[in-house]
Amino acid sequence: MALQALRPFHLALPVHDLAEAQAFYGDLLGCSCGRTGLRWIDFDFFGHQLTVHLTDTQVGPESTNPVDGEQVPTRHFGVVLAIPAWDALAARLSAAQTSFLIAPTTRFAGTGAEQRTMFFRDPSGNALEFKAFADDRQIFATD
Predict the structure, then answer these.
(1) What pLDDT score was predicted for residue 61?
(2) HEC states along 94-120?
């Protein structure tokens, strides 16, 4: 699928506190709020629809896989941003003293797959990854 033809995705996540989710996704990440209910909130997550659902149960244990010398959470989501937007978000998160799982870094430097990446958790423990590719044509590359 060509990048221009992409449509917004919808993702629903469990959270343990809606006010914390609002502060994290709305205030810290800058996502505008859409429709809400007593136990859920919709966010405009960088052009995609993210719905957080209040849950009273805990999500299962976290597993990781090694990628370029880092242990990456196998269950995570995020967005591929343009480099200036990624740099601005990395600076905002660092200024807010975000506890990174993997601090802002460049992975696969000097290769066609070169990308900036960072991992962190929301207040309910959901792992997020934000990326920016040096060359957007490499996003769906097979080599």
Answers:
(1) 53
(2) HHCCCCEEEEEEEECCCCCCCEEEEEE
C-beta separation of 115 from 131 below 8 A: yes
CB 22, CB 32: distance < 8 Å: no
pLDDT digits (tens, 9 = 90+) for 107-128: 889 988 899 999 999 998 899 9
Tell me the whole-structure pTM to 2 decimals.
0.82
Amino acid at 57: T
Separation between Cα atoms, residue 76 and residue 82, nearest integer Å: 20
Q: Give the distance, in angstroms, between the CA of residue 2 and the centroid of all CA atoms in the same chain.
A: 21
Lowest-pLDDT choice from 42-46, 101-105, 109-113: 109-113
pLDDT for 10 equals: 84
DSSP conformation letters of the chain: --GGG----EEEEEES-HHHHIIIIIIIS-PEEEEE-SSEEEEEETTEEEEEEE-SS------EEEETTEEEESSEEEEE--HHHHHHHHHHHHHTT--EEEEEEEESTTSTT-EEEEEEE-TTS-EEEEEEESSGGGTT---
